[in-house]
Amino acid sequence: MYQKQSFKYLAVCLCSSLFSPLALAHDPVFGLGPHVLFKDGLEIAPEIHQSKNGNKRDTELGAEITYGLTGDWAAGIEAPYVSQSDGSQSERGQGDLRIFTKYRFWRKDGPGLQQSMSLALKLKTDTASNNLGTGTTDSILGLTYGYEGRKWYRWAAARYRFNNTNDAGLKRGNKLLLDLVAGIRPHQSGYMEPDTVWLIELNGELGQQAELGGNNLANTGGSEWFVSPGIFWTKRNFAIKAGVQIPLISNLNGNQIKSDYRAKLVLEWHL
Hints:
Elements: H1 2-18, E1 42-53, E2 56-68, E3 73-85, E4 90-94, E5 98-110, E6 113-124, E7 138-149, E8 152-162, E9 170-171, E10 175-184, E11 195-207, E12 211-212, E13 215-216, E14 222-235, E15 238-252, E16 261-270
Antiparallel strand pairs: 1-2, 1-16, 2-3, 3-4, 3-5, 5-6, 6-7, 7-8, 8-10, 9-12, 10-11, 11-14, 12-13, 14-15, 15-16
């Protein structure tokens, strides 16, 4: 009897260790994190984004599918449906498809702790309908670090967006994206129990001026910083991720409408 109870106890401990919330690694809501899927894993994530700048309101409904090529390399695709409104008229249709990949090149595990670093690449295609896209094929290259413990989380990331020139000769300015994120798990739960991590992000966007015919456009470029509270709630292989970006500092060039807010909600299934 004692041996059976001991074996059962060891099995429960092993399952708790393998499938703890730390094993189901988290990523920030708005920033870039180093998390990748396990080999042959599949993540399906319907999501909604909304932003408001003055009278302009953009809403994007999308589906993201990610596949684990190896234990350290994942790739996927995002398919958005976009709705844009400026108060007087609106347009709806397919947005630009995006293809992405992420490779984790460094990982260090400790008792209840995992640190990792990843490289990420995203390609935004020119596939939108009804002039709802940028008319260009653009790319984003990123580097990210994550510290994930049983209670505390930390992330840092830098991304650079390379924008191309559209058919009208307009080149939107390249943009540097910076993220600093902290998270806390107030209650340390087991794998079978719901798990909550509260997040606070600092997101910066530093953009170059756009060019037309080799000349800089005055009312383009500049910087914006956002403070972004959020939540990551998980239960087993299902997660809800949500947050709001609130403008903190705006230093845009010329006469540009400042951001009012941005919001994001993501549902994730790991299969």
